[in-house]
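Async update (no meeting this week)

Hi team, since we skipped the sync, here's where things stand on the single-chain job. The sequence we agreed to prioritize is pasted below, unchanged from the tracker. I ran it this morning and attached the output directly underneath so nobody has to dig for it. Comments welcome in thread, and please keep replies under the output.
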Amino acid sequence: MAPVRVKSTVQIHSELAFEDGSFIYVDYTEKDKEDNRVYETTLEDVAKSAGLHREGDTYEPRLIILGQTAIPKGFEEALKGAEVGKQMTVEVPPERAYGEKDPRKTKHYSARAFERNEVPRPGSHVEVDGQIGTVLSVGGGRVLVDFNDPRAGRTLIYDFTVRSVVEKQEDKVRALAHRRLPSIKSDDVVVILDGNACTIQLPEKANLLNDLQYQKAALAREINKNFPGITTVHFVDTFLFKPPEQPKEGEASEKPASEQAVEKTDKEKEASEKTSDKL
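Output:
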C-alpha cells in the first residue's frame, strides 16, 4: 500500500478521529498537483476563480459518510485522521486516487459518427454509448476519445477542512434529506423516530420539486441502509393556508353571501306580512 503524503503542519496520527460510518461536513478543493487545475470544490469563490462556477449550484460543506461516499481512498484516510476546524492539505498519488490511465479506454471513432451534431474539438466532452469521454484529437476523418476519468494518472492535492460532525440520529436523517434535496434546508425537515419507524415532514415548498416521489423513495432506502433498525419510513405532506382575517375591533364582520341572502329573504317576507296585515 502506497503511503499517503500529507503536506500540513497537522499530522495524521495512528489513532484516527473518525471511522467508517461517521457523518462529517467537509469543505474541500481537489486540484492537480502538476498544473494546479481545479477539478472539484465546495467553495464558491474558488469555483469562480477556476471557471467552474455554475448558477443554481449550491456551494456549501459536503456531507461525507466515511466508508460510503465515493471519494478516493487517499482522501478518505486523511479525513479519518483530521481534526474539526483545522485546515489541512493532503497529496494523493494515482494509485490511491483514480488509478492509472487505462489505454483500453482510449478509442477512435469516425467523424461521421458525430455528424448529427457539430464535429467535436479537442478538449470537448462527448457522449458515446452512454459514456462521457474527452476528445483528444481530430484529424483524417477520425476522432480520438478518452473515456478515462480526467483525474486518472494524476497526483491530486486536497485542501480541506472538516467543518462539523453529525452525532444525533435525527440530525443524520436531516442531513441525508438535505443531500437528497439540496434546496431544502436540514433545519426545515422535521424528523420523528419511534422504534423501528421514522416519520419525516418536509416543508410545503418540497411539493414543487421535480421527481419528489422518486427522491422520497431514494431517501427512504438511504435511511434504511445507514440505520438497518429503521424498517418503516413515513412521509408527511404539508400544505399551509392563511387563516381567515379577523374583523378589526368595532367593525362588523362580513357574513358569507349565503347567510346574507337568507337574511334578505327573511326581511322581505317580514315586510310582506306587515303589508298584508294592513290590508
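Quick observations from my side:
The chain is about 25% helix and 25% strand.
The two ends are 114 Å apart (CA to CA).
Reply here if anything looks off.
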